[in-house]
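Observation: inputs received (chain + phosphoenolpyruvate).
Thought: call the complex predictor directly.
Action: predict_structure
Action Input:
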Amino acid sequence: MAIPEPRNRYQIMILYPITGFAPVARNSEIGYYPGMRQLIVGNWKMNGLKAESLARASEFRAFAEAEKPACDLLVCPPATLVEAVAKALAGSAIAVGGQDCHTEDKGAFTGDIAAAMVGDLGCRYVIVGHSERRRDHGENDTRVGAKATAAHRAGLMAIVCLGESAAERDAGRAETVVAAQLEGSWPQGGSPANTVVAYEPVWAIGTGRTPTVAEIAAIHGLMRTLIVARLGSDGHAVRLLYGGSVGPRNAAEILAIPNVDGALVGGASLKIEDFAAIARSCQAR
Ligand code: PEP
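Observation:
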C-alpha cells in the first residue's frame, strides 16, 4: 500500500505519529531520506535495579531537555523497569521500548511478555531478534518475523535485529547471511511506520570491535536495496540502524555513513556522558 502524501505538518503528525516524518522524494546523492531524523536506541539489557535506573532516566531527561539533540531518542530498560522508566520519561523527548515480546497475543507462555503488555507499560517500540535472544533462546528468522508482526498488532514499532557471526564474516558470507535474515525476519505488512531494522554484527556487540566504514556502508546499502525491492519507494523511509560497539569515539563516523539512520547502543547507553556524546554526533537532517 502506498503511503499517502501529507499536505502539511499537521497531517504529518496524524499520518506519521511514530516516525514523525513524511515521505518525500529521496535524494540518493545525499544518502538519507530527507526529514528522517536519526534514531539512537539505548538497550540497557539485563542491567540495573530501580534506583540506579531511575537516576539514569532522570539524567537522560535532563540532557534531552537541555540540549534538544537533532535525533530521536529511545531507551529500552529491562522488563521489570519499563513502567517506572516510562513514567519517569513521560512528556520528555525520550521514548521507551521493550527488549522483546512473544509471537502470541496471550496464553500459556510462562515468563513471556505479549506485545500488548509492552505497550500497556507505556512503550511505543520493542526490540525483536537481538542476537542475544537468537543465541540464548534459539530464536530463528521466522520467529523474529512473527514477533515483529505481533508488535505491529499491538501498535508498536518493531526494531528487527540481524547480523552475521565472526565465522560468517571471515568466510566472506556477511552479505548473504544478512540478506537471508532480512528476508526471513521481515514482518508481514512491514512498513516505515511500523518497522526499524538494526544491523548488528554479532562479533561487534560488546567487543569494542566494529566493521570498517566501507563494510557498514555495504551492508546498509544492501539492506536498503532489498527493502526498496520489497516496498518500492516507501522502502527508502525505513530506518536502518547500526549496532555493535558504538561509543563516543566512533559515533560521528558511523552516523555519517549513507543509509545509517541511527544506532542501537548497548554498553555506552548505560552512562549519560557516553549516550549524550553519541546523540550529539547525530547528523541533523
Ligand atoms: C547491543 O547489544 O545491541 C549492542 C550494540 O551492544 P554494544 O553497544 O555494547 O556493543
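Thought: report the result.
Final Answer: Residues 43, 200, 205-206, 243-246, 264-268 surround phosphoenolpyruvate (CB under 6 Å). Residues 44-280 form a domain with the TIM Barrel fold (CATH 3.20.20.70).
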